[in-house]
Amino acid sequence: MKAGVVGAGLMGREIALVFALGGIPVILNDLDEATLERSMLWLAKLLDKGVDRGLYTRHEADTALDRIQTSPELTDLAGCSIVTEAVFEALDAKEKVLRALDNICQPECILASNTSTLPISTLAAVLGTKRRRRFLGTHYFSPVSRMKLVEVIPAFGTDAEITGQITKMLKSIGKEPVQVKDVAGFAVNRLLHAMLIEAIKLVEEGVATPADLDTACRLGLGHPIGPFALMDVVSSSLCLQVQDILHSAYGERFRPPALLKQRVAAGLTGSKDHTGWLKHE
Questions:
Q1: What is the pLDDT of residue 70?
Q2: What is the CATH number of the domain that holds 205?
Q3: Is 139 designated active site?
Q4: How many domains does the chain have?
Q5: Which of 5, 64, 160, 189 has the fewest CB atoms within 10 Å of its CB?
Q6: Which of 121, 189, 235, 236 does the annotation list as catalytic?
Q7: Residues 169, 39 within the same domain
Q8: pTM of the predicted model, to two decimals?
Q9: Residue 103 a catalytic site member
Q10: What's the rounded Cα separation, in Å, for the pair 110 and 220?
Q11: Catalytic residue selected from 14, 139, 145, 193
């Protein structure tokens, strides 16, 4: 078995890594060769940290890195058994990649999308009829190398057998899959962004500071990370993008707060250079 991942950004490179750590050779594709080079350096550093923390042996880390091959050519994915699309969260970008993969990959290849918000059946519509039976959503969570959850989202035309195969494969590489109905935002993002929106409103109203709300969520609700620290990790710009999609799908309850829009417009989108909600060391 060989896996392919399209998109070497934050999500794609770590999806490739978990396949490799699970013993599956993987081809990581991106149009930009410089992005591929940076991603491999980043993964090497991540694995080094894992070795230092006792998460992997040096042999396991080196072997996993050796299992990842990079390529700027989609055609190199033709021999893969499963290809995961993990490009920018935009319908047109994902549709373009999926159309190309449908033509390149073998008929028995399974295609999956790592979209976090876009309906899987909408994406399936760009595929040929036969491929739709072998297409579904696999929504990983960041950081993929640490977060075990994967939402598995069958489209209207996905064969139950394919859903079962992917669920079994995800378990084999250390993930915990849950099956979710194909609706905008799926399950976890709807829960998460309802909380994030309310947290920002509490700051807008002067009820508490971002740091104190993070403390309250960690100590009072048992969350491993507070909502503002989480927004700094994934970026406020991505949060705004997701909330815009949810707002369009579900109406007023997911309207992005004015403060979030103002901060994104001002470039205050993440923890880099202390531009997030919190000061990070």
A1: 98
A2: 1.10.1040.10
A3: yes
A4: 2
A5: 160
A6: 189
A7: yes
A8: 0.90
A9: no
A10: 42
A11: 139
